[in-house]
Amino acid sequence: MLSSALDRFHDALPETLPGSLLIKQGQPSQDAWHLSRDEEGLPAYRPAIVPLTLWQRHGDQEGLAPWLSSDTVLEPTLVDQLLRAPLIAIDFPAFTDGRGYTLARLLRERHGYEGEVRAIGDVLIDQLYYMTRCGFDALALRDDQPLEDALRWLKPFSVSYQPGVDVREALFERRLRETS
Amino acid sequence: MYRYDTYDQTLVDERVAQFRDQMERYLAGRLSDAEFLPLRLQNGLYIQRHAPMLRIAIPYGMLSSRQLRALAGITRRYDRGYGHFTTRQNLQLNWPRLEDVPDILAELAQVQMHAIQTSGNCIRNTTTDQFAGIAGDEVEDPRPWCELIRQWSTLHPEFAYLPRKFKIAVTGADHDRAAIQVHDIGVRLWHDDAGGLRAQVLAGGGMGRTPMLGDVVCEDLPWQHLLTYLEACVRVYNQFGRRDNKFKARIKILVKALGIEEYRRRVEEEWAHLKDGPQTLTEAAVESARSHFPEPPRRDVSEAAIATYQQLRHDDRAFARFVTNNVTDHIVPGYKAVTLSLKRREHAPGDVTADQMEAVADLADVFGFGELRVTHQQNLVLSDVPVDEIEALWHKLQELGMANPTVGTLNDIICCPGGDYCALANAVSIPIAQAIQERFDDLDYLYDLGPLDLNISGCMNACGHHHVGNIGILGVDKKGEEYYQISLGGNSHDNASLGKILGPSFYREDVPGVIDKVLKVYVEQRHEDEHFIDTYRRIGIKPFKEHVYA
Ligand code: SF4
């Protein structure tokens, strides 16, 4: 009994407190967005990132943004809605779940979404570089991740073979361009 | 072979720095075991039964003598002075110390090598035909394409956390020596009537617990689109492959569940957006990749020299045996490819000591333009030997113990490290291979049996490719005891097929006897020069079953 009451209490707390570990455009940063994982109802605070289904119901309200679960399929009607979102968060339920990388690339490269794409959930230092390459520009680190390490390893590589959201040119093209 | 430019070098150097820091954070307790796991796996590092194991990438099996010497030094300084060539054309170290691995990787980087993506749920080392570039039945040299795929897949930001491992194999010949039908993706390069290069793309093949042959996703992809098409194939898998059950996570399960038509539909839908995008290949890009694989500066070999070689083959029975089994025809008259057998009774299949690595590197310099290939049968190949030097090479190989004239025979066993080394094993595999080699060591009998693949895996993971052995042996565990299941009829060459289980498993000491019985049935039933696999296909498993379990 007590524990479920405690759970409810914790659920009611914003998971990402403003000022917790967020890296935006490569810089440590703070912002006002709270994250709510409550599927049932809107949180009291604003601005808030809420589950996609809730956002679809209340998306016209100011200060709400959706987060997508990793198994989201970007159907055309959903994409139309998402393109109007002020921010889109993509959840990593486990850092080994790689679907979020594809979702971010599709939002950026296929659908041209230009707002913030934020990684939430099991976001670890050693994933940040690939996330950035796939189009995430805001990285909400898991609470226990040392920010210093994260900043140090944001960009472990100065060159990449494949194009991504960051570099649009494959290395083989760049080589040809540079030698011609 | 492919030589790094400053970009490739920068990338592997930066990879070493990254992994060194990851290792430090792990040893300092700032990275948990679970979080370190995929990071170390994607740098080739396993934690095995006795010690860590490090799997070093040998991209599509191409190795230089300089690299082999460096590997010899590394095995001496950081390991116990030997290494193990695997069925995926890689090299494994069985005894490195965990904390030494960053230094090992740094030394590898100095000779343009790495261990990137040799393990983990990502795109692995691309494999190909060991006779690429020199085979008479080749329509397109697959190596430049493998290199393009290597670059595309290396540190691919979107595909580092796939549902499961992902293996690609490429062939450009009429006869498939790369076993493309049992890979997650298989690519066969071919020419259409107008001479245009196209790729047949297969998906959903694989071994492991649920072996399957790949289905054709695209029959005739124009070459320009190879990378974008592969990207679409892997993306669909990344999105829809199962992640809830490790044993159902390979692409073969997805392709099977969706059906090849639906999988193809999704790939094509995805590809419609990627096609003609920034990874579309151009003539110039492919030419540049090809320029890394020039013809070596071969010399003329005179008719007289060729005649002398033929005469020697005629006169010297031992030499003739070596040539028949271990020497392969070459597209250039006067040249041959020579296979160095790593199947020796004193060594586990695929094992080579540091001294032997150095000796082989010297041979490669003298006889093979400083290059070697690793085969998925766990042998080595010198791909460009003039016929008038084969006798000299043969003598050197005899001294080294690598001239066993048994390549392609029952004795040329493919075998995983098994229970002697591997933490996942149900049973040992190396002692089984040795027992079989010991029992069937009569060359005349081996030759009489003809080409025969015998493959052994120590568990379901099938690293020893037992499903595609004409005879396959799989270690199984029954209530803590080691048993061996035998299957017949697998084949990894053209017309690939998966073996069928013969029946209840056997005790370890009974295995050679069972193999003997299987061979007796074959010898009795075969038509003249019929190969084992063809006899099996004609008569089916029943006669074998009846005789073995009689
Ligand atoms: S088949 Fe099994 S026992 Fe053999 S190396 Fe692979 S995982 Fe280990």
From TrEMBL, chain A:
Report the Pfam families cross-referenced here. Answer: DUF934
Q: What is this protein called?
A: Uncharacterized conserved protein, DUF934 family
Tell me what organism the protein belongs to: Modicisalibacter ilicicola DSM 19980
Automatic annotation (TrEMBL), chain B:
Which controlled-vocabulary keywords does the entry list? Answer: 4Fe-4S, Iron, Iron-sulfur, Metal-binding, Oxidoreductase
The UniProt entry, under InterPro entries, shows:
NiRdtase/SiRdtase_haem-b_fer (IPR005117), Nit/Sulf_reduc_fer-like_dom_sf (IPR036136), NO2/SO3_Rdtase_4Fe4S_dom (IPR006067), NO2/SO3_Rdtase_4Fe4S_prot (IPR045169), NO2/SO3_Rdtase_4Fe4S_sf (IPR045854)
Gene3D superfamilies given for it?
Answer: 3.90.480.20, Sulfite Reductase Hemoprotein, domain 1
Q: In its keyword annotation, does this UniProt entry include Iron? A: yes
Q: Which domain of life is it from?
A: Bacteria
What is any one GO biological process for this UniProt entry?
sulfate assimilation
| SUPFAM superfamilies (alphabetical) | Nitrite and sulphite reductase 4Fe-4S domain-like, Nitrite/Sulfite reductase N-terminal domain-like
What cofactor does this protein call for? siroheme; [4Fe-4S] cluster
Q: Which residues form the Nitrite/Sulfite reductase ferredoxin-like domain?
A: 53-110, 349-399
Q: Name one GO cellular component term.
A: sulfite reductase complex (NADPH)
4Fe-4S: present as a keyword of the record? yes
Q: Which Pfam families does the UniProt record give?
A: NIR_SIR, NIR_SIR_ferr
Q: Which molecular-function annotations from GO does this UniProt entry contain?
A: 4 iron, 4 sulfur cluster binding; heme binding; metal ion binding; sulfite reductase (ferredoxin) activity; sulfite reductase activity
- Domain (Nitrite/sulphite reductase 4Fe-4S) spans 119-273, 412-548
PANTHER family assigned = SULFITE REDUCTASE [NADPH] SUBUNIT BETA (PTHR11493:SF47), SULFITE REDUCTASE [NADPH] SUBUNIT BETA-RELATED (PTHR11493)
Name of this chain's protein: Sulfite reductase (NADPH) hemoprotein beta-component
Which organism is this protein's natural source?
Modicisalibacter ilicicola DSM 19980
Kindly list the organism's lineage.
Bacteria, Pseudomonadati, Pseudomonadota, Gammaproteobacteria, Oceanospirillales
